[in-house]
Design a protein that fits this description.
Length: 310
């Protein structure tokens, strides 16, 4: 087997060049280590557990974000921002938002007690991801009392990401409106300034913001979930790959999956079933990303220290 691999490596170097050959071998080793680690930590079961927790947490989580976000922004703006991250149509989301508004009305509006109850109900949303990423690093299992704190930290990260997702598009839109409103003044004093190109760049920035928000969330998840010190340099590449993979999956879900699978058999909860399937696929991709962080760190810095779980 070894001579065969050596001959294969020499053939790759001869036809593609040594640098490309080294890159292919690096990618192959990293991919194999990622898949092996994903299988070792039962990544598929953890992704299914993530979808299970979402089933019970999605309504209180959306209600919590809507309740707290409405204190700073308009309710419509908050809802539209959340909808942008859900890979299902507005019609399929109708069931979810009807139940969220019903839950809000049952809570009697905004109060400290209602926020606390919604917060506790939505904390388990991140439990499977936090435990999965932590186990990928082979660190000691997180104690039971630290898990809610980690989940709360993830919830705060999501909240800050949505805050950025609400604030920056509004600022960019305001800048665009100011430039358009002051078109005559800008062209008079700065005739070389391309107003159309600037407006297009601002619009493009608003669309790219969704990817940056996801990258921010995954970077912090991969850095903070493990029970060990993890640096940004160890996670940024995996966070970029996971962000691009999820955005590609989202495009496929929105444009192709509804035509291939008939979720109408679930009746009124068809949209929820489609969302749970999306969450399951997302969980697989995110946990694979955590395994990729470990595999890349092993390639760059040597073997990761293994600490058995207690």
């Amino acid at each position: 087997m070894e001579p065969l691999l050596q001959r294969l490596n020499r053939s790759i170097d001869r036809f593609l060049g040594k640098r490309i050959g080294n890159g292919l071998r690096f990618g192959g080793r990293t991919g194999m280590n990622t898949v092996h680690l994903y299988s070792e930590i039962d990544g598929e079961q953890r992704a299914a557990s993530f979808a299970y927790y979402v089933l019970f947490s999605i309504f209180p989580l959306c209600a919590l974000i809507l309740t707290t976000g409405s204190a700073f922004f308009g309710t419509t703006d908050v809802v539209e921002t959340i909808k942008g991250f859900l890979p299902i149509s507005a019609q399929e989301q109708k069931f979810i938002w009807e139940n969220v508004h019903r839950l809000e009305q049952a809570r009697g509006g905004v109060s400290a007690i209602s926020v606390a109850i919604l917060l506790w109900s939505s904390l388990r949303f991140f439990q499977a991801l936090v435990r999965g990423v932590n186990r990928a690093w082979h660190t000691v299992e997180i104690p039971w009392w630290q898990v809610p704190l980690k989940n709360l930290l993830m919830l705060l990260i999501i909240g800050s990401a949505l805050f950025v997702g609400l604030l920056i598009p509004a600022v960019l839109q305001a800048v665009r409106n100011i430039l358009i409103g002051a078109e005559q003044w800008v062209l008079h004093y700065y005739p070389q300034f391309n107003l159309g190109l600037a407006s297009m760049a601002l619009d493009l920035s608003r669309y790219l913001l969704g990817g940056l928000v996801l990258f921010y969330c995954f970077s912090l998840l991969y850095m903070l979930a493990p029970r060990r010190r993890v640096y940004f340099r160890q996670v940024w590449l995996a966070a970029v790959i996971v962000t691009l993979a999820l955005q590609a999956c989202q495009i496929a879900f929105v444009n192709y999956l509804p035509h291939l699978l008939n979720y109408g058999i679930y009746g009124a909860v068809g949209g929820l079933m489609l969302l749970l399937f999306w969450v399951y696929i997302s969980g697989i991709v995110i946990i694979l990303g955590g395994c990729l962080c470990v595999a890349l760190d092993k390639e760059w810095n040597g073997r990761v220290e293994v600490i058995p779980a207690s």
